[in-house]
Amino acid sequence: MYGNQKAYVASSLSGDDMISSLMYDFAVKDSKCDHLCGVPYTALPIATLLSVKSKIPMLMRRKETKSYGTKKTIEGHYKAGQSCLIIEDVVTSGSSVLETVKDLKAEGLVIEDVIVILDREQGGSQNIDSNGMKLKSLYTMTQLINILLRKGEITKEMADDVRHYLSTTKAPVIKDHSLTMDRIKMSYEKRAELAQNPITKQLLNIMATKRTNLCLSADLTSTTKILSLLENVGEHVCMVKTHIDIIEDFNDDFLVQLKHLADKFNFLILEDRKFADIGNTVSLQYLKGMYKVAEWADMVTVHSLPGEGILKAFTGSINGVSRGVFLLAEMSSQGNLISAEYTKATIDMADKYSDLVTGFVCQNGEHIKNPAFIQLTPGVQLINAEDDFGQVYNTPETVVLEKGADVAVVGRGIVAAKNPESQAVIYKEALWECYVKRISNT
Ligand code: S5P
User: Fold this and answer.
1) Is residue 219 part of an annotated ligand binding site?
2) CATH class of 5-179
3) 69: left (phi over 0), alpha (psi -120 to 50) or beta
4) Helices and strands in the chain: count of H runs, count of E runs
5) What is the CATH number of domain 185-440?
6) Which residues form a coiled coil (predicted)?
7) What is the domain partition of the chain in residue ranges?
8) Each residue's pLDDT tens digit, 98-111
């Protein structure tokens, strides 16, 4: 039990004042957080007193969004990336805490700790823990019963009844992926503010302004066919993915035209080279050879297989122009040999290179916690299917809502359609609708 409790009980302080003094000494005074936020409504007086005492600015969460004006759910002065400590009076299941956290995380705030006056020990602590935070309680119900029993305020029978009730009545288990994957509830605009790599920032801003999270994989072998496809589809995509080495009539003029279309329609170019050699060779493959990928590709795909050295072959800018890298953390093909450990190690590898790495090519982004990284997911068609070579397709709903894709890659779903432009519109709208649903408060 916390040491000063007795002294405060005996003092002349009362009610909210005494509780806030206890809470201050217990968990606020040494906290390095940028903000405090009380869970509406009953914890608001305590949070307010703690904010005044600690001089840590308070944020307010509206339970009902205003129907007029800014429609903001969080009031206060804050920036994405700042930390916030949650204040609650009583925790049973933790669901109110989690609702508040969800809204704060949607604004890009970082939440690690929740402090509560009383933990009823019915599962709230476990729910908060399994959703990526720590609960610190001033009192547990067991401690409170023992104090009341010792003071003769309740009988032994009553204490046993309450203990029995608490141990047999457990709150439902709550696991919400959007709470552990911070990026999932955040808008692309907000995430752009956090991105360290200028290309990532640019991509997120293009997605937000063009209202599209569709990447076209232009897997055609003739330059004229690719250019005419992009002339029709360019306005609907945020990114075009190329395989430059499958083109049969490659020439330098193609690159000039490709860049012209990228400027005209405001999309970025990803060369899907899947580099996978030692750093020195990759550096030559990237900078030299007939394709001179570094000169025109905003981003490239890179395997993590050779280890960290491969990332040293790239720089965040070439001749003053920003560049980015997508690391392959998973593959969409049936029976591929990538393990869960490999995926996790790939994502961890990027931490030190956040000024270079734009994101990850993967199917399931549960390990991508940092909102500054983009999840790029290929293997997307309007119905679940498979091709003759083991490529597995999931629908827009599955990849965006269930698996966390930020950008979906569609190749043959559009390229092989009778009317690629109208098909691109169908994909664009379906994918955008899923994203809007994902970041909404439902
Ligand atoms: O795991 C992967 C990674 C990539 S980059 N699975 C993939 O399919 N890709 C690429 O995405 C693949 O090389 C192809 O260019 C595109 C998918 O094309 P589609 O025609 O199957 O949609």
Assistant:
1) yes
2) alpha beta
3) left
4) 18, 18
5) 3.20.20.70
6) none
7) 5-179, 185-440
8) 999 999 998 989 99
